[in-house]
Design brief:
The protein is α/β, with parallel strands linked by helices and 209 residues long. The protein has one domain: TIM Barrel, CATH 3.20.20.70. It has six helices and ten strands, in the order βαβαβαβαβαβββββα. The strands form two sheets. An eight-stranded parallel barrel has the order 1-2-3-4-5-6-7-8. A two-stranded antiparallel sheet has the order 9-10. The chain is globular, with a radius of gyration of 16 Å. It starts with a strand and ends with a helix.
Length: 209
């Protein structure tokens, strides 16, 4: 059942204001905090200024790839509701969760069914699972049908090169939240017309009987 969406890789105030003030805002807004390889990466001082705003009905998500103590200490007082963690062991996630008192989105990167089954390792430390491709900044796909045969004890977010105009009904029985970044961009920049289309489509499918 689709409950909402996440728009990830926000780095400019115009897009952030558009999302927060939209009549059907995303449930989650993500910010790339420590992965300079991504064109959506935002440096700390710019991030601090950008987040000087009320999220209203949205949750802010810090996207972190194997974060070290330096970045975790830097961002600990920023208004993040969730930390989305890549390449962390269950023990590392447990320590981060306990120390910084944040909800956790555990990202499981998938190419094969064997990768998918790694989710079992994180059942005690995650609040939401994110099944993503192994492309990181490259917006690659994985076979979303792999998700059909598993039963999770937590909510599931799904990513992996999903496009703003994809048929969302295909994901209705797979996940609770749909995560887009490159799928709402044109020439590497967030496209407000694509975001508008996608947010309205998510709202429609949420309200379907």
């Amino acid at each position: 059942m689709i409950k909402g969406c996440k728009i990830c890789g926000i780095s400019d105030p115009n897009t952030l204001n558009f999302l927060i003030n939209h009549p059907h805002p995303p449930k989650f807004i993500g910010f790339i905090c420590n992965y300079p390889k991504s064109p959506r990466y935002i440096e700390y001082e710019s991030l601090k200024k950008l987040l000087n705003i009320s999220p209203k009905n949205c949750s802010f998500v810090a996207v972190l790839v194997k974060p070290d103590v330096e970045i975790l200490e830097k961002i600990k007082n920023l208004p993040f509701d969730y930390y989305q963690l890549y390449n962390c062991s269950p023990e590392e996630i447990r320590e981060i969760k306990q120390k910084y008192k944040k909800k956790i989105i555990t990202a499981i990167t998938i190419k094969t069914e064997t990768d998918l089954m790694n989710y079992k390792l994180y059942s005690d430390v995650t609040d939401i699972y994110l099944f993503d491709s192994k492309g990181y900044e490259k917006s690659q796909s994985f076979d979303h049908d792999l998700v059909k045969n598993i039963s999770l004890n937590k909510e599931l977010m799904i990513a992996g090169n999903i496009q703003y105009n994809d048929e969302l009904k295909n994901f209705k029985n797979l996940a609770n939240f749909i995560d887009l970044s490159g799928g709402v961009e044109t020439s590497g920049l967030k496209d407000l017309s694509k975001i508008e289309f996608f947010l309205n489509k998510v709202n429609e499918i949420k309200n379907e009987a």
